[in-house]
Amino acid sequence: MSEERKRIIYLEGVTSIVVNTALFAVKFYYGFVYNSIAIVTDAVHTLSDSLTSIIVIVGSRVAYRKPDSEHPFGHGRSELIASLIIGVVLGFVAYELGAESYKKLLEASTLVFSSILVIVLALSALIKELLAQWAFRLAEKYGSQLIRGDAWHHRSDALVTGVLLVAMLVGNRYWWFDGAAGLAISLLILYTAIKLLLEASSELLGRAPEKNLIDRIKHIAESASSIVLNVHHIHVHKYGEHVEVTLHVDLPDTITLEEAHKIATLIEERIKNELGYETTVHVEPAKSKHEIKHED
After folding, report:
1. Domain containing residue 235
2. pLDDT tens digit string along 173-191?
3. Between β-strands 278-286 and 242-252, what pairing exists: parallel, antiparallel or unpaired?
4. What is the count of structural domains for the chain?
């Protein structure tokens, strides 16, 4: 999975940069030709999406560097750091959009209708939404917060361009639409930015694993041998794709050290084969099953 995941993250980043640059060129050209500051501004916003895509590429490059003496478990958490940066960028986009939308409401400004600009905006919004949906699917499939952040940036651009399109169509009757919709979208982007920041920071701080993962690890360990009496103190440490697990296993105090070692090794191998996690098992002696104090 690692090489494929690395390739997919890089592909998403490069594709985003190419598409954003092309859309910027088209929108900037027509905005300049038709003297539309709104379209030129939207073009610049589209180009700014390339910044998050560059962060995606750099973040993934660092994440897949090999472990070294200072980082023995690899550099996988750099993806989370990159996600934090994208969250900050999204927050800045939300602020800028909100401020610009509020200004439009105060000035009661409207957009001049142009069939060419309508087509340009419609195509741009459609392409960016398709790009966002593709990125969301990749983020879900490969469990990448980094791609998910980039996907939200694509969607924010699609929404902003879509609002600009509708405002151009209805601006003569509803002058306030552009500003009001812009404020609503800025709040949505801000919510997304805060959510991304909270999720990434929680992972960096060592968020507890889900209960179903703990139950699965416990089941694998208990099923490794019929004499495993109890499994407890399960800890999961995530470093990107690299995951380290430590757990305690209670075994009868009548077995030999060699037998205990074999069972511990078997548990480590099974967790590695089924979940892909590196595991360290700590063995503890126990007299009988009913004497064991169960701990989670």
Report:
1. 211-291
2. 777 776 787 788 788 778 8
3. parallel
4. 2
SS3 call for 280? strand
Q: Do residues 66 and 195 both lie within one domain? A: yes
Cα 53 from Cα 57, distance rounded (Å): 6
Q: How far apart are CA 74 and CA 66, in angstroms?
A: 6
CB 150 within 8 A of CB 86: yes
Contact partners, residue 178, CB within 8 Å, separation at least 6: 101, 104, 109, 110, 111, 163, 164, 167, 171
Nearest by Cα to 3 from 63, 52, 55? 63
Amino acid sitting at position 139: A
Winning range, highest mean pLDDT, from 75-84, 130-139, 200-209, 281-290: 130-139
| Exposed/middle/buried for residue 189 (C-beta within 10 Å: 0-12, 13-18, 19+) | buried
| Cβ contact 90:196 at 8 Å | yes
Q: Is 290 exposed, middle or buried (0-12, 13-18, 19+ CB in 10 A)?
A: exposed
Question: Could you give the CA distance from residue 44 to residue 55 in angstroms, rounded to a whole number?
Answer: 18
